Amino acid sequence: TPVIMLTALDQDIDKLMGLRIGADDYVVKPFNPAEVVARAQAVLRRSMAAARQTEPRVLRADPFEIDLEQHEAAVLVGKQRHALSLTLTEFKLLAQLARAPRRVFTRAELLAACLPEGDTLERTVDSHISKLRKKLEERGVEGIPAGVRGVGYKLWSGE
Question: What's the confidence (pLDDT) of residue 159?
Fold first, then answer.
C-alpha cells in the first residue's frame, strides 16, 4: 500500500525518518492541495507499474488464455483453441475479469482499469461487455462474462 505522510514536522531528520520507515512521499503543512493530488497520482503510478512487473505474462482462466504482452486472447472449446479477434477495450475487459474470475467488478472499477483516458460513462462498459459476449458466443462460449444485477460483471457465473 502506498503511503504519503502529511505532517507539520518539517525538519530534515523528520523527513528522513518518515521515508526510512516506509513512506513513499512526505508532504509538509501548509501544502497546496493540487500538489498533494499530483504526488498521490505519481505514487499510484509507480505502485501500479511495480504491480504490473510481477504480473504473469499469460493469464489462464478456463477456457481462456490471454497473452498480456502480445495482446492475444484465445478460448479453448472442446480440444480446439480459437483465437479471439478483440478490440483493445474488449481485450482489457477480458484480461481484467480473468485476473480474478469469480470476483464481481463494478462498472466503475472496469471503467477505471480499461477506459481511464476519457470522460466515459459507466454504461459504456455494458456496451463493450455485450460486444465481447457476442464474440464469445460465436466461438461457443455462453454466458461469459456473467452480469450481476445492480453491481457489475464477473468472468464466471459460479454455477
Answer: 53
Q: Do 133 and 62 fall within a single domain?
A: yes
Q: What is the DSSP string of 42-75?
A: HHHHHHHHHHHHHS-SEEEETTEEEETTTTEEEE
Average pLDDT, 10 consecutive residues per value, the chain (159 residues): 92 93 93 92 85 77 92 92 94 94 93 80 90 94 92 81
Q: Are residues 91 and 125 in the same domain?
A: yes
pTM for the whole thing? 0.66
Structural domain span for residue 70: 58-154
**Following DSSP, what letter does each residue of the chain receive, concatenated?**
---EEEES--SHHHHHHHHHTT-SEEEESS--HHHHHHHHHHHHHHHHHHHHHHS-SEEEETTEEEETTTTEEEEEETTEEEEE---HHHHHHHHHHHHSTTSPEEHHHHHHHH-TTS---THHHHHHHHHHHHHHHHTT--S-SEEETTTEEES----
